[in-house]
């Protein structure tokens, strides 16, 4: 998954809050890091999305 696709999915899921979620919300599945920290560390965007989707209990339609 390209980073632009990931960002689009974040905007679709969280709207105006997407940047805040990526910057400030710590996820256990990302090693207690934020989305931004995980991506900056080189984590695969598809895997980060899977963690976001699972931990924040997003609807199946957003997979």
Structure report:
With 63 residues, the protein is mainly α. The protein has one domain. 57% of the residues lie in helices and 0% in strands. The protein contains four helices and no strands. The protein has helices at 3-14, 18-24, 35-40, 45-55. Helix 1 packs across helix 2 (18-24). The radius of gyration is 10 Å and the shape is globular. It comes from Motilibacter rhizosphaerae. Pfam families: DUF3046. This is DUF3046 family protein. InterPro entries: DUF3046.
Q: What low-confidence regions span 5 or more consecutive residues with pLDDT below 50?
A: none
Enumerate how many helices there are, as a single number. Answer: 4
What is the C-alpha radius of gyration, as a whole number of Å?
10 Å
Count of DSSP E strands? 0
Q: How does the overall form come out from the CA principal axes? A: globular
Order of helices and strands: HHHH
- Termini separation comes to 12 Å
Could you give a short account of the major beta sheet?
none
Proportion of residues in β-strands? under 5%
The pLDDT mean sits at: 95
Q: Could you estimate the helical fraction of the residues in percent?
A: 55-70%
| SS-derived structural category | mainly alpha
Number of domains: 1
């Amino acid at each position: 998954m390209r980073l632009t696709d990931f960002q689009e999915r974040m905007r679709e899921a969280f709207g105006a809050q997407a940047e805040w979620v990526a910057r400030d919300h710590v996820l256990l599945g990302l090693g207690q890091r934020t989305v931004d920290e995980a991506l900056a560390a080189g984590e695969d965007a598809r895997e980060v999305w899977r963690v976001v989707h699972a931990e924040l209990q997003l609807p199946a339609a957003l997979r």
